[in-house]
């Protein structure tokens, strides 16, 4: 070997002590080389032996501690966080209820957004937009896109003579929407992603005298998220995928995302920006202060529930603006002309996330305290990964430590999933089957059901997950039933459904078969059993029954697998 070839690497090694130590000695004789290679070979065997020991120890530890890691997967708005809330409600109800007052802000924002969406839909300006803009401006949820395009009635439809009057009477809600959005959203999202700040929440906890046991979202939950493992490097292609040929975002750590980030801003963002120009917006810090329930709190309502009285005495509390607008809100929602116009525009708010329009007077009451059902319905988008831990003290699951990971399902969140695949015991995959006529918020060209099917296929075919139990929740069955009963036909959105009956029984059976067949065809583990449930995870009673069945199955299969290790 010529000197000039050796020198650069030796020079490099000067700045890299590890590389220097590993380099073969210069002028190594053939015998020395043979001895060195033999020694290296033995060292490698020792190292592999240690790896095997570590693996066995980990399995033993798992057995001894009986640890179960469950990953909730599915597209955005599939119901993952709602399922997590149901686990909480079942296993840590005090913690769940302690958070309820913080959810008030989310519920208010959900309600206000429904109202501003109606006003936007009634606005004469939206009538002049073309088909695509129309759909975008109304957000994606519950808007049907059919190949036949917008019906003529949507363009020259029912007039709402009171529109200007409604707009004037509800003007303060536009400002409120901005304030709540700022309070609850992260800088890069215009959707609510977190509860009001931990400082405020801590104050509430302290007032109740049991602060330390309060698992505020920003302590227990968000800590779990921040404990998250580093995400793998992913490639994001420049070209967005279109409906019909859209690949699924990466879930194996080396796949590619849909490139939907550039489409991520939802229609409401443009509206929000417009509104932002029209109104004076408080800084989020002031707003947080004024919304801080703890600061103005009086007597604790009950020591265990985390409920505080007295917020209604704060003139800045949003409840006052809402309360003052309640009659106009109710009138707007009950107005037959408004309903007719929404129908013409094919905007079914009843099916969208965070729907509270049927409870306006209860929710805007000065002393409103969110119920369990209200909290379950509240829509807060998940960013990153949220961890929830609990253990069960009785029954067959006794002593088992459960860790549930709730991930963000939007396309730009999916790259965070793969690091959690390694230690997972079971996956609960949620597919909202009512969404067959809806498109993704982050990419309005992609049908939601199509995205779910592709995501499902990617999960069930993943080799890393070959030995992981999979439970499938075909979710939002309540909305599916309502949609079918309202006359929406599946075969207009899914040609393969053909002329089968358009009733709930037949449609749900069809989806069960479709998802089951994909699992059967693509699983790398032909012996894996698939557990399928038709769910409406906002329904506490039924979901509790399903959760305990799922828990028992996961434990049983996990024990069986561990015996085989
Ligand atoms: N009617 C009805 N609403 C549901 C059901 N499941 C979830 N929702 C609602 O749908 C919305 C979205 O649910 P989430 O649990 O936040 O969805 P997610 O999968 O966590 O969404 P990301 O965090 O964006 O990934 C919430 O407002 C829920 O209350 C259901 O079965 N029926
Ligand atoms: Mg979520």
Automatic annotation (TrEMBL):
Biological processes, Gene Ontology terms: adenylate cyclase-modulating G protein-coupled receptor signaling pathway
Compositional bias ranges of the Low complexity kind: 244-272
InterPro entries, A to Z: Gprotein_alpha_su (IPR001019), GproteinA_insert (IPR011025), P-loop_NTPase (IPR027417)
PROSITE patterns, per database record: G_ALPHA
Keyword annotations of the record: GTP-binding, Magnesium, Metal-binding, Nucleotide-binding, Transducer
Positions of GTP binding: 376-382, 475-478
Biased composition regions of type Basic and acidic residues, renumbered to the chain: 1-14
Comp. bias regions, Polar residues: 195-221
Domain of life of the source: Eukaryota
Cellular component GO terms held in the UniProt record: cytoplasm; heterotrimeric G-protein complex
Pfam families registered for this protein in UniProt: G-alpha
Residues bound to Mg(2+): 382
Chain positions covered by the region annotation Disordered: 1-32, 186-281
A GO MF label: GTP binding
PANTHER family assigned: GTP-BINDING PROTEIN ALPHA SUBUNIT, GUANINE NUCLEOTIDE-BINDING PROTEIN SUBUNIT ALPHA HOMOLOG
Protein name, UniProt field: Guanine nucleotide-binding protein alpha-4 subunit
């Amino acid at each position: 070997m010529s000197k000039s070839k050796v020198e650069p690497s030796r020079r490099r090694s000067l700045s890299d002590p590890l590389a220097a130590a590993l380099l073969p000695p210069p002028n190594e004789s053939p015998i020395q080389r043979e001895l060195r290679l033999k020694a290296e070979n033995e060292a490698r065997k020792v190292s592999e032996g240690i790896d095997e020991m570590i693996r066995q120890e980990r399995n033993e530890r798992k057995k001894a501690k009986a640890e179960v890691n469950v990953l909730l997967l599915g597209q955005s708005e599939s119901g993952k966080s709602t399922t997590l809330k149901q686990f909480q409600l079942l296993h840590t109800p005090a913690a769940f209820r302690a958070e309820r007052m913080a959810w008030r802000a989310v519920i208010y924002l959900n309600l206000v957004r429904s109202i501003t969406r109606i006003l936007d839909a009634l606005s004469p300006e939206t009538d002049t937009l073309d088909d695509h803009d129309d759909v975008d401006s109304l957000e994606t949820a519950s808007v049907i896109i059919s190949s036949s395009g917008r019906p003529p009635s949507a363009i020259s439809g029912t007039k709402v003579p009171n529109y200007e009057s409604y707009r004037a009477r509800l003007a303060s809600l536009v400002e409120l929407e901005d304030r709540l959005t700022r309070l609850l959203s992260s800088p890069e999202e215009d959707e609510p992603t977190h509860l009001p700040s931990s400082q405020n929440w801590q104050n509430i906890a302290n007032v109740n005298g049991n602060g330390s046991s309060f698992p505020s979202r920003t302590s227990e939950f968000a800590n779990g998220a921040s404990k998250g493992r580093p995400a793998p490097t992913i490639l994001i292609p420049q070209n967005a995928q279109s409906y019909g040929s859209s690949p699924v975002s990466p879930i194996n750590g080396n796949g590619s995302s849909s490139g939907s980030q550039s489409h991520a801003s939802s229609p409401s963002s443009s509206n929000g920006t417009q509104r932002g120009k029209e109104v004076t917006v408080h800084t989020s810090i002031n707003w947080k202060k004024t919304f801080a329930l703890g600061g103005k709190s009086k007597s604790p309502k009950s020591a265990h529930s985390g409920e505080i009285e007295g917020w209604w005495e704060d003139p800045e509390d949003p409840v006052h603006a809402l309360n003052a607008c309640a009659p106009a809100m109710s009138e707007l929602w009950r107005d037959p002309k408004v309903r007719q116009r929404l129908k013409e525009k094919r905007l079914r708010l009843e099916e969208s996330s965070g729907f509270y329009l049927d409870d306006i007077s209860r929710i805007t009451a000065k002393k409103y305290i969110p119920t369990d059902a209200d909290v379950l319905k509240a829509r807060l988008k998940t960013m990153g990964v949220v961890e929830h831990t609990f253990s069960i003290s009785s029954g067959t699951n006794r002593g088992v430590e459960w860790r549930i990971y709730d991930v963000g399902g939007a396309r730009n969140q999916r790259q965070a999933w793969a690091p959690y695949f390694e230690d997972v015991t079971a996956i609960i995959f949620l597919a909202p089957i009512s969404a067959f006529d809806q498109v993704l918020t982050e990419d309005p060209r992609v049908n939601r059901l199509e995205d779910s099917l592709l995501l499902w296929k990617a999960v069930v075919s993943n080799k890393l997950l070959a030995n992981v139990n999979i439970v499938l929740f075909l979710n939002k069955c309540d909305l599916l039933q309502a949609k079918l009963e309202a006359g929406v036909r599946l075969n207009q959105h899914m040609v393969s459904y053909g002329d089968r009956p358009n009733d709930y029984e037949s449609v749900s059976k069809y989806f069960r078969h479709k998802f089951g067949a994909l699992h059967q065809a693509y699983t790398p583990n032909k012996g894996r059993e698939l557990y399928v449930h038709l769910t409406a995870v906002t329904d506490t009673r039924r979901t509790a029954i399903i959760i305990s069945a799922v828990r028992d199955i996961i434990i049983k299969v996990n024990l069986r697998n561990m015996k085989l290790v």
